[in-house]
Structure formats: structure tokens, C-alpha cells
């Protein structure tokens, strides 16, 4: 073949590719700006049938008609984008039943997901309330409180923070899919290292003078326990936390 003719064909193919990309970009922009009603009108018969069945299945699984329609509307742009590429909704999402399961699973995950720092604060406050009420009750039966039978308030705070962080981390690991979790041996090593750091830290803090790390009177511990639990309740209410470290739900 004549090199000039070959170059001409190559240029034609390149121009066709550029024109096709330009057309796809134009269509994508139109799709992005279209209303749900306009997108519905662009659906192929196959995709229209798929989304109709999806809407019906969502309603049958407990969603209201409005909630199901919102779910379908949220998929329209993605469906149209892939329809342009020749990928039907069935190929994109799997069967209707599969997509329904994915939607409900995603909602459960979103509900149960709590940022690590929030879960750590929640857990630390809960543990602190338990420790304080326990020390308060024990204190009523101890005639001579000392560092041998009671912990100072700073030591208590440190231990509760460490426990809150460690338990929250372990809990979030267990809530992950098996493929996303760290190997069990790594989790055990991290927990052991964390416990060692907590133990060493608490021993060092316990050496602080009583003026800095005092042993509180039993009644003060009980009052603080109630106060801390109240703060935890407000914290959970403010951040809409519905799970906890100990139940995992």
C-alpha cells in the first residue's frame, strides 16, 4: 500500500475516534444535565424493564413508592452512560434480586459505620463510667484507700482511653469483610502491644504524687460515673451513634 494512502487512512481513523469521543462527551454532558423524566425517556426497552422490576422489588422489600423511585432515579445517569457504551443494566448490576440486596446492604453499612474517633470516645466514656461506679462501690467497703487497692483518677482516665481505642479498633476490624481484615495474628500482636503500652503507661502515671493523681472519695466516683454516662448519652445523641463497641450493632 502507498505510504501516503496508509497515512491518510490512519488520519481518518484518528479523526473518527476524536469525533466519537467528542460526541460521547456531548451526550454525557446532556445526560448529566437531564431531569429524571428526560433520562427515563432515553432508556432502552431492556433497561426500562429492568428498572421497573427493580422499583417493584424495592417496594416489596419494605420501601415506600417514593423511596424506591428515588433509588431508581439515582441510577438513571449511570444506566444511560453505560447504555451508550452498549452495557445493559442487567450486565452492570446483575439480577434485580442482586441489586436489591446490594442497595439494602449498602444502607445497613452506612447506618453501622461510625468514624473511629467517635467510636473510641464513646467506648472510653462507657468504660470510664463502669470503672468509676465500680471504684465508688468498692470504696464504701475499703477503710483505708491506697494505691494498692484503688487507682488514681489520672490512671483511670489513661486506662479507659487506651481500652476505648483498642476495643474500638478490634471491633471495626471484626465488622470488615474477611478479605479486608488484617490477618488474625497481626490483630493479636497489635492488641498485645497496645496492652503492654497501656500497662507501662499506667504504672508510670501511678507514680505521680497524690496531688496530681488523687484517689477520689467513693461518693465522688459515683457522681462522676453518672456525669460521664450522661456525657456519653449526649455524645451519642449528637452524632447519631446507634452501635457500640460491645455489641457491634
Automatic annotation (TrEMBL):
TM region positions: 116-141, 153-171, 183-209, 215-235
Keywords assigned: Membrane, Transmembrane, Transmembrane helix
Top-level lineage group: Bacteria
The keyword tRNA-binding is annotated on this UniProt entry: no
Region annotation Disordered: where it falls in the sequence: 1-28
Segments forming a coiled coil: none
Signal peptide stretch: none
One of the Pfam families matching this protein, by short name: DUF1129
Keyword NADP among record annotations: no
Protein name: DUF1129 domain-containing protein
Amino acid at each position: 500500500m502507498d505510504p501516503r494512502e496508509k497515512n491518510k487512512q490512519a488520519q481518518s481513523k484518528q479523526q473518527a475516534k476524536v469525533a466519537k469521543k467528542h460526541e460521547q462527551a456531548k451526550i454525557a454532558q446532556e445526560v448529566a444535565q437531564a431531569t429524571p423524566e428526560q433520562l427515563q425517556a432515553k432508556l432502552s426497552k431492556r433497561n426500562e424493564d429492568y428498572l421497573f422490576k427493580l422499583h417493584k422489588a424495592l417496594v416489596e422489600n419494605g420501601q415506600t413508592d417514593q423511596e424506591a423511585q428515588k433509588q431508581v432515579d439515582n441510577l438513571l445517569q449511570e444506566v444511560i452512560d453505560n447504555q451508550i457504551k452498549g452495557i445493559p443494566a442487567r450486565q452492570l448490576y446483575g439480577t434485580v434480586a442482586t441489586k436489591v440486596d446490594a442497595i439494602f446492604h449498602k444502607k445497613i453499612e452506612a447506618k453501622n459505620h461510625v468514624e473511629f474517633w467517635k467510636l473510641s470516645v464513646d467506648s472510653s466514656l462507657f468504660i470510664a463510667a463502669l470503672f468509676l461506679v465500680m471504684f465508688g462501690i468498692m470504696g464504701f467497703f475499703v477503710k483505708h484507700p491506697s494505691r494498692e487497692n484503688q487507682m488514681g483518677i489520672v490512671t483511670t482516665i489513661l486506662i479507659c482511653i487506651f481500652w476505648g481505642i483498642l476495643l474500638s479498633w478490634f471491633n471495626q476490624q471484626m465488622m470488615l469483610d474477611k478479605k479486608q481484615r488484617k490477618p488474625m495474628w497481626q490483630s493479636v500482636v497489635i492488641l498485645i502491644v497496645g496492652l503492654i503500652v497501656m500497662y507501662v503507661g499506667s504504672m508510670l502515671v501511678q507514680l505521680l504524687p497524690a496531688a496530681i493523681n488523687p484517689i477520689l472519695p467513693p461518693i465522688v466516683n459515683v457522681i462522676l460515673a453518672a456525669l460521664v454516662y450522661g456525657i456519653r448519652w449526649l455524645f451519642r445523641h449528637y452524632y447519631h451513634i446507634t452501635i457500640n463497641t460491645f455489641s457491634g450493632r
